[in-house]
């Protein structure tokens, strides 16, 4: 935990302090930001108050009073709930605006981790509860130089695996006339293992109508054949098998044959156009130096696709934050499922992955976009044409 940096950021955002709270390991963000080990028995509530000015204060139960030993600040103890409430009221006495892992209307579910009763308690002391979402992005979503390099290296290995996966589809279809989706998914997983990549789940390998389901995933019990004349979507994500590495997450599409059907080609061009419009908008915004809310990138992409007549078939947000988890804690490119008003900030990364999903097929194209101090753009290969899979 960098106390000085946290307090500087609190003052920048005009917040009186940041109140951390946990019970039964409910808030992983608190443990990560504070540098605590998220393990062991947490059977009693603890609070940690970082004011914008002055020294932190910790409030712990007498049974588990060692829980915050690694953190600086005065320690207060409680046993009975009236004592707990009185201590907490005293800790917050000099504050008016208190940041917590709270999101109004749960607009940012990744941050909305404090229960409603605890928010009620803090409000009962006459305090305004503010969302810590921007603080979380600043301290959780910004990458170090080493993490950025791990992303680039993961990208090189994932791109190699994807190329081999398309070739394997062609080889197996050419040799046997067909191949199961799950066989290619297993091929990708083996490619990851051989390249020392790890992923919590996935990948997605979806043929024809299955590609029209954004989160379809083949299994041993549910897997269709890929044959000549079929359209295939592959969504794969992974990171290096080493501490603090971050994910690389992409989606490409291919067609088994030389003559891509016109309806598929048309939708691909629409989705590609929406993706490229978002990249250009992000690049222009960062180069201008003006704050740019993340949800506006979703508006750009969705506006492009809607103008082409496919708005109703674009059923998810444009993108998500990427970090040590494939869905990170930074700003999401979203004004559909939620409205993420956090600005795009340097040293963060997010996906741009518009999709159009129809009964017979679905097209998604996904790149990762990194925000540097003065620019923005894709971190890896960018698909410009549907891959023609040779048999």
Task: Tell me what the structure shows.
With about 400 residues, the chain is an alpha+beta fold. It has two domains: about 5-140, Creatine Amidinohydrolase, Chain A, domain 1; about 140-390, Alpha-Beta Complex (Creatine Amidinohydrolase), CATH 3.90.230.10. Helix content is about 35%, strand content about 20%. The protein contains nine helices and 18 strands. It has helices spanning about 5-10, 30-35, 80-90, 115-125, 135-140, 145-175, 180-195, 260-290, 295-305, and strands at about 15-20, 45-50, 55-60, 75-80, 95-100, 130, 180, 195-200, 205, 225, 230-240, 250-255, 350, 355, 360-365, 365-370, 375-380, 385-390. The strands form five sheets. Strands 4-3-2-1-5-6 form a six-stranded mixed β-sheet. Strands 8, 9, 11, 12 and 18 form a five-stranded mixed β-sheet that branches. Strand 5 (about 95-100), helix 4 and strand 6 form a beta-alpha-beta unit. Helix 6 packs across helix 7 (about 180-195) and helix 8 packs antiparallel against helix 9. The radius of gyration is 24 Å and the shape is elongated. The mean pLDDT is about 95.
Compact summary:
The chain has 391 residues and is α+β, with helices and mostly antiparallel strands. The protein is built from 9 helices and 18 strands. The model has no long low-confidence stretch (mean pLDDT 96).
């Amino acid at each position: 935990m960098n106390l000085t940096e946290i307090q500087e950021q609190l003052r920048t955002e005009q917040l009186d302090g940041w109140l951390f709270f946990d019970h039964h390991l409910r808030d992983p963000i608190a443990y990560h930001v504070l540098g605590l080990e998220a393990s062991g028995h947490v059977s009693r509530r603890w609070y940690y108050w970082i004011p914008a000015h002055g020294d932190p204060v910790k409030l712990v139960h007498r049974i588990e009073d060692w829980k915050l030993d690694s953190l600086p600040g005065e320690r207060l103890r409680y046993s009975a709930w009236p004592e707990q409430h009185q201590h907490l009221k005293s800790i917050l006495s000099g504050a008016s605006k208190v940041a917590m892992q709270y999101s109004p209307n749960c607009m940012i579910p990744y941050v909305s981790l404090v229960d409603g009763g605890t928010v009620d308690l803090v409000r009962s002391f006459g305090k305004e509860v503010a969302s810590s979402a921007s603080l979380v992005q600043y301290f959780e979503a910004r990458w170090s130089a080493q993490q950025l390099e791990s992303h680039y290296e993961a990208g090189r290995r994932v791109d190699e695996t994807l190329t081999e996966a398309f070739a394997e589809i062609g080889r197996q279809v050419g040799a046997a006339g067909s191949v199961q989706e799950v066989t290619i998914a297993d091929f990708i997983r083996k490619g990851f293992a051989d390249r020392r990549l790890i992923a919590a789940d996935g990948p997605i390998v979806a043929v024809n109508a299955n590609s029209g389901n954004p989160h379809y995933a083949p299994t041993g019990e549910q897997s269709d054949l890929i044959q000549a004349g079929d359209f295939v979507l592959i969504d794969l994500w992974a990171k290096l098998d080493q501490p603090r590495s971050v994910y690389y997450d992409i989606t490409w599409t291919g067609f088994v044959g030389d003559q891509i059907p016109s309806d598929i080609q048309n939708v691909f061009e629409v989705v590609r156009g929406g993706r490229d419009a978002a990249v250009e908008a992000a690049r222009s915004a960062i180069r201008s130096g003006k704050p740019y809310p993340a949800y506006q990138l979703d508006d750009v992409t969705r506006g492009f696709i809607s103008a082409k007549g496919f708005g109703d078939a674009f059923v998810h947000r444009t993108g998500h934050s990427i970090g040590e988890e494939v869905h990170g804690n930074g700003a999401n490119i979203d004004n559909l499922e939620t409205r993420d008003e956090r600005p795009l900030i340097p040293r963060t990364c997010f996906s741009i992955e518009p999709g159009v999903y129809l009964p017979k097929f679905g097209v998604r194209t996904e790149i990762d976009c990194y925000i540097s101090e003065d620019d923005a753009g894709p971190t890896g290969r960018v698909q410009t044409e549907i891959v023609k899979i040779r048999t």
